[in-house]
């Protein structure tokens, strides 16, 4: 079963710091949440990869096993954060400018070059527009990524 709503972030804030702050946030929110985490490192391309799955308690885990990423009766659900470090991201991108008739007026091409950055994938049980809990979690991750500490 594929479920959940993914949000992607790219930042220069270190994954270890983000994971620690995210854990601290859920500990304050839920008291004694269940953390299931893993770390994978590759020495060849110097990548790091963290996975952090968070649930409030075993009842929420059981609910997740039956329903996937979904909100429970309390409007909460399991959260999954994937953090991957990339030594370099070099992508050619395009921006399309359209007029009022939805016709393409021009296409701007540009390159994005970033070094030693992190990509964060946050999987939530609902869209942030539909859930106060998901909006809170999303906002907390944004706050962590906007912090100056690392």
Question: What can be said about this structure in brief?
Answer:
The chain is an alpha+beta fold and 150 residues long.
Question: Any overview of this molecule?
Answer:
By secondary structure, this protein is of the alpha+beta class. 27% of the residues lie in helices and 44% in strands. It is built from three helices and five strands; from the N terminus they run βαββαββα. It has helices at residues 15-30, 58-67, 132-145; strands at 5-11, 34-42, 47-55, 79-98, 104-124. Strands 1-5-4-3-2 form a five-stranded antiparallel β-sheet. α1 packs antiparallel against α3 (132-145). The longest helix has 16 residues, at 15-30. It is globular.
Question: N-to-C terminal Cα separation, in Å?
Answer: 36 Å
Instruction: Identify the overall geometry.
Output: globular
Proportion of residues in helical segments: 25-40%
Overall mean pLDDT stands at: 89
| Oligomer description | single chain
